[in-house]
Amino acid sequence: MLCVIAKLDEEANERLASLRDAVFPGGSALPPLYGHITLATYLPEEHDAFVRGCGDILKAFPAFTVRYERVGYFPLSGVIFAQPEDNPHLSAMHRGIAEKYGRELDQWTGGDGWFPHTTLIAAPPADPETVCREMRRRLVPFEARIGRVEFSLVGETGYTVLGGADLK
Question: What is the pTM of this model?
Answer without folding.
Answer: 0.94
